[in-house]
């Protein structure tokens, strides 16, 4: 769905973001006439806005298109490198750093294991050093950096910018991550729940006009759901939307900390797959209390599942549990798409994706009159970090979604 503009002078800034969106989503270039038709803006408004965007260096004019009657049309193109943003994903197992440009493309990246048994202050300090190193190594112009987007596991207090004791991040109780990192790097910072950032990344990078109502099924060290309805990301009352860990998906499984058994989060937890694979002799049992060792073992199980029957069965069982949750969620929200994302997804997707598609297709609980599209995020393993960076761009250019406007653009 293309956002529609309005021809009132008082909301010029909104129109600026509408026009920039239209150009951003047309990598092959788009003419003023086409933008006017897509957005409902008058051609005079489009021309005025385009002039401002060109002056700000955000777009450029391309070749003249002489086809058809009337004046030749000049195509307009995004200048992707005109502004950049830093996107960081803090997962209990690893921290991913990206620099993204206006097109949402990654121009630099790095990742490290999340340090254990140190204070969050030390982690934040090392995060700041990692960002500095990344920006310097990649030769990023600091004057064009709009800010930092940080994606972290919930629960979060977005107003205070704090991380409030996520189940898998020991010692992160009421930590002012946003302000501490923003201060350390002297840049405006946004904090967002990981699944929400992943969803923003999908919205920012998706050229699929039909993808308006979708969920991002997120497999990190924990599991979560990000949601977009009517092409807008949803956050809920306290921006903590998407905890699906205790959705009951089967009769089997250990007793969850909530007291039930068969909870999605427990059933598909990386440590659970790794332990089961070790019990069946697929891999050696790693230290299950160490997230990094578990992540490495999980990758090995995913790799083995392509040819080892025992590993394949374990991943297929996980896929069955995921499919049960997918059907419930899609029914409840009338979704058109489920997009799988998160660093742990990519290790199992070869086996899990076809299995989930098959099970959703066969499910007698599936109630929607349309087929559900089930796919893997095109943003790859860095999707959440990229989304956090896109969120900074989105906040800068889309007043409707504004949480901060780091800098005047023109
Ligand atoms: Zn539970």
Structural class: alpha/beta
What characterizes the major β-sheet?
Answer: 5 strands, mixed
What is the count of DSSP helices, taking H or I runs of 4+ residues? 12
Low-pLDDT stretches: 7-11, 399-410
Helix content class: 25-40%
Query: How far do the termini sit from each other?
Result: 27 Å
Order of helices and strands: HEHHEEEEEHEEEEHEHEEEHHHHEHEH
Tell me the number of strands. Answer: 16
Percent of residues in β-strands: 15-25%
Pfam families: MarR_2, ROK
Domain HTH marR-type: 15-61
Protein name: ROK family protein
Family: Belongs to the ROK (NagC/XylR) family.
Overview of this protein structure:
The chain is α/β, with parallel strands linked by helices and 410 residues long. Helices cover 39% and strands 20% of the residues. The chain has twelve helices and 16 strands. It has helices spanning 12-24, 32-39, 43-55, 120-137, 177-185, 194-205, 264-267, 270-279, 291-304, 309-333, 345-362, 383-397; strands spanning 30-31, 59-65, 73-78, 84-90, 94-101, 106-113, 145-152, 156-157, 162-164, 173-175, 189-193, 214-219, 223-229, 232-234, 337-341, 373-376. The strands form four sheets. Strands 6-5-4-7-11 form a five-stranded mixed beta sheet. Strands 14-13-12-15-16 form a five-stranded mixed beta sheet, with helices on both faces. α11 links the parallel β15 and β16 (373-376). α1 packs across α3 (43-55) and α9 packs across α11 (345-362). It is globular, with a radius of gyration of 22 Å. 46% of the residues are buried. The structure holds zinc ion. Zinc ion binds next to loops.
């Amino acid at each position: 769905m293309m956002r529609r503009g309005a021809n009132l002078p008082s909301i010029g800034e909104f129109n600026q973001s509408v026009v920039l969106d239209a150009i951003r989503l047309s990598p092959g270039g788009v003419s003023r006439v086409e933008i006017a038709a897509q957005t409902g803006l008058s051609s005079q408004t489009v021309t005025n806005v385009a002039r401002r965007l060109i002056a700000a260096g955000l777009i450029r004019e391309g070749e003249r298109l002489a086809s058809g009657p009337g004046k030749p049309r000049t195509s307009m193109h995004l200048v992707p490198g005109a502004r950049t943003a830093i996107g960081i994903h803090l997962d209990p197992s690893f921290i991913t750093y990206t620099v993204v440009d206006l097109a949402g493309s990654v121009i630099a990246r790095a990742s490290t294991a999340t340090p254990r048994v140190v204070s969050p202050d030390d982690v934040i300090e090392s995060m700041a050093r990692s960002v500095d190193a990344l920006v310097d190594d990649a030769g990023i112009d600091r004057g064009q950096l709009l800010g930092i987007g940080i994606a972290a596991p919930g629960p979060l207090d977005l107003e205070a910018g704090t991380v409030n004791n996520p189940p898998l991040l020991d010692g992160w109780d009421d930590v002012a991550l946003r302000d501490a990192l923003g201060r350390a790097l002297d840049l405006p910072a946004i904090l967002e729940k990981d699944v929400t950032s992943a969803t923003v990344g999908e919205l920012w990078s998706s050229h699929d006009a039909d993808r308006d109502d979708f969920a991002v099924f997120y497999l990190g060290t924990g599991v979560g759901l990000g949601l977009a309805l009517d092409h807008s990301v949803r956050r809920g009352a306290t921006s903590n939307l998407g905890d699906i860990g205790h959705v009951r998906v089967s009769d089997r499984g250990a007793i969850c900390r909530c007291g039930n058994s068969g909870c999605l989060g427990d059933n598909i937890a990386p440590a659970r797959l790794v332990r089961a694979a070790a019990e069946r002799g697929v891999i050696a049992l790693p230290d299950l209390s160490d997230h990094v060792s578990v992540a490495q073992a999980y990758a090995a199980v995913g790799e083995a599942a392509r040819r080892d029957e025992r590993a394949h069965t374990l991943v297929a069982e996980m896929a069955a549990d995921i499919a049960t949750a997918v059907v419930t969620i899609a029914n409840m929200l009338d979704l058109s798409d489920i997009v799988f994302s998160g660093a742990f997804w990519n290790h199992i997707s070869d086996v899990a994706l076809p299995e989930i598609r098959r099970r959703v297709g066969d499910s007698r609980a599936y109630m929607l009159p349309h087929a559900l599209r089930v796919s893997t995020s095109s943003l790859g393993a860095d999707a959440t970090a990229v989304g956090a960076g896109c969120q900074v761009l989105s906040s800068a250019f889309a007043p409707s979604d504004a949480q901060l406007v780091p800098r005047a653009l023109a």
